[in-house]
Amino acid sequence: MKKFLFLLLPAFVGAQTLESLLDFAKQNNKLLEAQTLTKQAKQKELDAQQSSYYPTVDVGAFYQSLDERTPMVAGDIYSGYAKAGLDIYDGGKRSALVNQKSSEFKASTYDESELKKSISLQIVQDFYAINSLNSARKAMEEANNSLKSQLARVSAFYEAKLATKDEVDRLQSAYDTNVYNIEALKLDILTLKQRMELQLGKKIDSLEESHFKEMFFESYESVDALKSLESSRDALRSSADSLDSVYYPQVRLEDTYSLYGYNDTDASHPEGLENQNKIMLSANFRLYDGGVVAQNKQAVELNAEALSKRIAYKNDEQKMNYELARARISTSKIKIQSAQSALRAANSAFETIEKKYSAGIVDNVAYLDALTAQTSAVSLYETALNDLEIAYAFYYYYSGKNIEEFLQ
Q: What pLDDT shows up at residue 14?
């Protein structure tokens, strides 16, 4: 029991790892819920079409009363009947429609899976973008702490007539500009955070550090959006096949059993049958319709061909994005190395120049330049680290994988 409570502890302390966010989104995203309902509707349509192979059974009744009785017909006639019917042959229409509904259901299933993956990818991008912006904000806040300290020191010198007004103004300007940029970053963070909350369907307290594994594949699988298009094309082709059935015989067998009752009868208006069983075998097919069905079939086939062109384009697009994603990982690693080197140099330079500035050896221009370079280097390095994580996410997405499976 203690172990179980320990496992649940992160949920109570508000830990928001990327994996937990993705899992929560899969269960609570409103768009996903809508897509799931659409998939369920397609399943019902398929079930209904498969049921068309079963016989039909109808029951009915009628009551007839004649004010002026017709000779040899009772004045009142009432009847109840039951009718069973079965389509023996329909030219392949039902099987084609079942195939159509089956393909439409597959398409909706792939649409649901694709929506899950695209939402996951968007959350990943926002997650690491927020991390980058938070790192930039913290770097600026640390810079402002340094600026505030130097501003207080130089202001005291100015009061003692040991510093000029422009030295104070430059530090004040840099401080105020940083405050402005920090507030702008806070708004950007809030915007991304609320977009994530919309995707998740809940509030976000804090974001915990999360990383992807590095794995590469010899080939990629088709993304679900592509599979959905293929299934939609198959559905159109089956729909076209169903139209051909009109030119084949439609054979149906029906058996109707009726019970009759009568009132207002006499010798001139006798009772009729008490019961009757009628079996009917019917067959019909269309000889001519002016090409209506043929033209409708051509229209459907053209739509299917249009989807084939889109599928070919999407294939090429996925291949391009897959290759770009691999290149993005390599580029991100190089950027991290460069940013790390730049950060080391900027930290070293700022540490030296800050001491010299405090000692009055260099002016505030050199100090502000070094501080800006250090702040920028910190932000650049953290952004490069987060960009690598996003690059992994894109690679797994365009490899046709589930992104969350590769989180450490």
A: 54
CA distances from 220 to 230, 232, 260, 360 (A): 17, 22, 70, 61
Enumerate the β-bridge partners of residue 250.
284
User: Is-contact 73 202, C-beta < 8 A?
Assistant: no
Q: What angle do CA 256, 262, 267 make, to 5 degrees?
A: 125
What is the Cα Rg of the chain in Å?
A: 38
Sheet containing 250-263: which strands, arranged edge to edge?
Answer: 56-65, 76-89, 250-263, 275-284
C-alpha distances (whole Å) from 109 to each of 35, 99, 103, 115, 322 are 9, 15, 10, 10, 23
Q: Are 262 and 74 in contact (CB under 8 A)?
A: yes
CA distances from 286 to 97, 121, 243, 281, 291 (A): 19, 53, 12, 17, 11
Amino acid at 121: L
Bridge partners of 82, per DSSP, are 59, 257
- What's the pTM? 0.87
Residue stretches of the chain with pLDDT short of 50: 1-13
Q: What local confidence, expressed as pLDDT, does residue 169 receive?
A: 95
